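Q: Sequence in, structure out?
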Amino acid sequence: MMKRTLLCALLLAVTTAIPAGAANLVKTYSYFSIGGSTLEDIEKQLSKHGPQVKSTGSRHPGATQMAFTTRISYARQAGSCRIADAVVTLKVKVILPEWRRPRKADADVKLFWDTLSADIKRHEERHVEIAKNHARELEDALKATYPQKDCDAAKAKAAEITAAVLARHDRAQVQFDRVESVNFESRILRLMRYRIERIQNGQLPPA
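A: Exactly. Output:
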């Protein structure tokens, strides 16, 4: 029922915009429409209309754009300067596909799409969770810094901490994508079997 070429083509990715990580989260969703009545049609539509990821230069079935911003205030004391407060905000835009099902599309194609689209959303939401975790880590690390000799040194320390946390964030996102892409086909097959069981048990409506 499923073509391996389609399964191999649907590699999910994240795009990251720099500045810094976040304890405050602002999340929005954006959708792009695709058509097609077969798996091959859907593959072509995703390749043509999916969001383009700068890091790869190619289009993907879904993406999460992230922007980290940090507001830091400093307090001068006798012979030193410290970070008085740090507030990190993460803005994310989750981009997801929306299939306009043609009347002639078979039920098995709809079953596959329902499984795939749910997995795409789960994948992108996990990217958001990874970013949120590193955002909290960044905010906590900034607040925990020791006083420096002056505010220039305190700012340099904040920049050093930010760069280190963001580097860990980027590595975590890349590793997540790597694991997901390796397990993609087996995961989709497992999810489809589970969805079919739920349909047969009356827990989900027929495709």
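The two ends are 15 Å apart (CA to CA).
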